[in-house]
Amino acid sequence: MHRPPPGQYVTLSTADEPYQAFVPAPLPPVPPLAWTPALRRRFDDALVALGRLDAITALLPNAALLLYSFVRKEAVLSSQIEGTQSSLADLLLFEIDEQPGVPLDDAHEVSRYVAALERGLALLRGGLPLCSRLLCEMHAVLLDHPRGRGKAPGEIRSSAVWIGGSRPGNAAFVPPPVDALPACIAAFERFLNDDPEATSPLLKAALAHVQFQTIHPFLDGNGRIGRLLIVLQLVADGVLREPLLYPSLFFKTHRSLYYELLNEVRLRGDWERWLDFFAEGVQASAAQALVTAHALLALVNADRDRIATLGRAASSALVVHQALQRQPLATSTALVKAAGLTAATVNKSLGHLSALGIVAELTQRQRGRVFSYRRYVELLNADLPPAAA
Ligand SMILES: Nc1ncnc2c1ncn2[C@@H]1O[C@H](COP(=O)(O)OP(=O)(O)OP(=O)(O)O)[C@@H](O)[C@H]1O
C-alpha cells in the first residue's frame, strides 16, 4: 500500500550543495497498516515458528549449550553483511587465541558482535528496558576494536551520515540531522516500551528495525545494532527465552531487496511489503534454527551413546564432550578449565573421543593442540553461504 512518506524532508546544505534529510514520524504508522489475510498469515506462521524454536529451550536438556554456537553463527553472518570475511571457524579460533585464516581485525570485529549481544542481554536481564542507553552500551562494545575506535563507540552521532553516494548531495538517503536525533530517539524508545500503545512483539520488531535504520543514530554499526535489536526485543517481550534466532542469513541472502524495502517505506510509506519480507525472514530463520538445533542435538545424543560404550572411561569423556558442545573448537587447556578435570584425564578423554572419530586434532603439534568437535562444526556451517563455511 502506498502512503505519503512517513516523515518529513528537511533541506540542508554542505559546501553550498543542498540536500534533503529525512526525519521519520514516530511509530506506529499513520494511517494504520493494511492487514490483508496474506499478511496476517505470514505473521501467524512466523510466530508459530518462533514458538517451536523457543520450545526447544524448555524441552531439550542440552539446548542451552546450543546458544554459544548459535550466537557466534549470527555474529559471523551479520558481520559479513558489513563486509568482514571471518568464518565461524575463524571466530572460534580467534576466541582461543589461535591465528585465524583471515585478517585478525575481521575476527576481532566479529567477536565484538558476540560481546555486544551478551552485554545487551545482561543489561536487559538486569532490569534495564530497551532504551538508547542500552543500545549505546552495546554499540560501545561492538566498536571496541581497532577499526571501530574512530567511529564514536557508544555515542549517538554528532555529525551527518548518508547512505549510498560519496556525499550527502548525491546520497540515496540522508538520515535525520543531528539536531533532530534526540526527539527521534525519544519517540523510538517510547515505541519500544509500548508507549503510547502496546504493539505485538513481532510487529514491533519489524517496525522498529526500519525506524532504527532510518534514524541511523550511530556513525557506524547501525545495521548490526539494528539486527541485534530484533533478537533482543523478542527476548525482552518474552517471545524467545534465549536469543536462538539468527535472521542475518536471510538479510544477507536478500540484501538488495532488504535495502530496497527499507527505501520503499521511506519513499512511499509501503510498510506492508517490508512486513511481509520481515515475517518471512523470521519464519525462515526460526525454522532453519530449529532444523539445525535438532540435527545438533541428534548428533550429540548419538555421540553420547557411543561414548557410553567406553565403560569406566565414559564418565570423564562425557564431561569433555559436554564442554565441546559449548566450545566446539578448543585447546586442551581450555577443555581442562571447562571440564574441571585434570589435564591427564582430559587428554585421555580426548584420545578416546578421537578414536571414536568424534573429535579431530587440528594442529598436529605437541603443545597447544586444538580439538574440533568436527561434525558439530560441520552442522553449524551447513546453512552458511560458501564464503562463511
Ligand atoms: N536505503 C536505506 N534506508 C535505510 N536504511 C538503510 C538503507 N540501506 C541500508 N540501510 C541500513 O543501513 C545499514 C548500514 O549502516 P551502517 O554502515 O551504520 O551499519 P553496519 O552495521 O556498520 O553495516 P551493515 O549493516 O552493512 O552490517 C544496513 O544494514 C541497512 O540496515
UniProtKB/TrEMBL annotation:
Residues 130-280 form the Fido domain. Its EC number is 2.7.7.-. ATP binds at E82, H216, D220, G221, N222, G223, R224, I225, G226, R227, Y258, Y259. It is an enzyme of class 2 (transferase). One of its GO terms (biological process) is carbohydrate metabolic process. Keywords: ATP-binding, Glycosidase, Hydrolase, Nucleotide-binding, Nucleotidyltransferase, Transferase. It holds the Pfam family Fic. The active site is at H216. GO terms for molecular function: ATP binding; hydrolase activity, hydrolyzing O-glycosyl compounds; nucleotidyltransferase activity. InterPro entries: Fic/DOC_N (IPR025758), Fido (IPR003812), Fido-like_dom_sf (IPR036597), Fido_containing (IPR040198), Glyco_hydro_5_CS (IPR018087), SoFic-like (IPR026287). PANTHER family: FIDO DOMAIN-CONTAINING PROTEIN (PTHR13504:SF38), FIDO DOMAIN-CONTAINING PROTEIN DDB_G0283145 (PTHR13504). This is Adenosine monophosphate-protein transferase SoFic.
